[in-house]
Specification:
Blueprint: H1 3-16, E1 21-26, H2 27-33, E2 49-56, H3 59-70, H4 72-77, H5 81-99, E3 104-107, H6 119-125, E4 146-154, H7 170-173, H8 177-181, E5 187-188, E6 191-192, H9 194-203, H10 212-216, H11 227-243, H12 245-249
Antiparallel strand pairs: 1-2, 2-4, 3-4, 5-6
Helix pairs in contact: 1-5
Length: about 250
């Protein structure tokens, strides 16, 4: 099967699983912009392309909830449903790539592979979004309500690759309600202070299930995560931070 037909099948497959962000980046474009510690050479020597996968808005959560209802055993066995569901669905893609004798490697922004690729850089190269004051990418349609879930590095070379967004830089002209909405004053015109935010969240439950600044962003308001979905995301971010609490508090 030709590379572009393989990609089309992968895109349809992932879309059916709720991943409505499926883009492709030329490997050399990533290599030109990345730091040595996150290069592709240590992952797949003959890499030609990177398929970046994620979701935007609420549709993914709805599909996931349906899957959990139909597969109660998965829900019981898996604590972090989103991460485990992502890996499950990527295994289906792996099976298809194996059938087509394609070389590939898969990397996720969580677990053991969390720091092997710069997903923010990939997201910008793929046109998923641009930098925002909130420390996350912001998309013209979905605003900050996007989540990058994994990348498939492959030796397949496609005829077309996605490009960075042009003429979209929303924060400078925005009234910036995200700044005043933050109860810990961790968002400013300079951006998001990650360390201050995490320290605040370790000492109070104010932001345990919600991010007031993210909610305040005027972009993609109709695509905001439900309270349940955002609370789930926050739960596992905070768990990770608590795991490294002693190191964080030394900063």
């Amino acid at each position: 099967m030709k590379p572009d037909l393989i990609y089309d099948h992968i895109e349809r497959l992932l879309n059916s699983y709720g991943f409505n962000i499926v883009t492709k980046v030329k490997a050399v474009a990533y290599k030109k912009q990345i730091k040595t510690s996150r290069k592709l050479d240590g992952l797949l020597k003959d890499a030609e392309s990177i398929i970046l996968v994620g979701f935007a808005g609420k549709e993914f959560w709805e599909i996931l909830q349906t899957y959990l209802e139909e597969n109660p055993g998965f829900k019981i066995r898996s604590e972090d449903w989103i991460d485990e569901y992502t890996k499950l669905r990527f295994r289906s893609v792996a099976g298809f790539l194996d059938e087509n004798k394609s070389e590939y490697d898969m990397v996720f922004p969580f677990g053991p592979t969390a720091f092997q690729l710069d997903f923010m850089k990939l997201g910008k190269l793929a046109g998923v979004g641009v930098d925002s004051l909130l420390g996350v990418l912001i998309n013209p349609e979905y605003g900050p309500w996007i989540s990058l879930r994994g990348a498939i590095i492959t030796n397949l070379e496609f005829n077309y690759f996605d490009k960075p967004l042009k003429d979209f830089d929303p924060c400078p002209s925005c009234s910036k309600p995200c700044i005043s909405a933050c109860p810990a004053n961790t968002v400013s015109s300079k951006g998001w202070d990650w360390e201050a935010c995490m320290k605040y969240r370790l000492t109070t439950d104010t932001c345990e299930t919600n991010c007031a600044s993210r909610r305040a962003c005027p972009y993609g308001e109709e695509h905001q995560y439900t309270e349940e979905q955002l609370a789930h995301h926050h739960k596992f971010v905070l768990r990770s931070v608590r795991k490294h609490r002693s190191k964080l508090l030394e900063l």
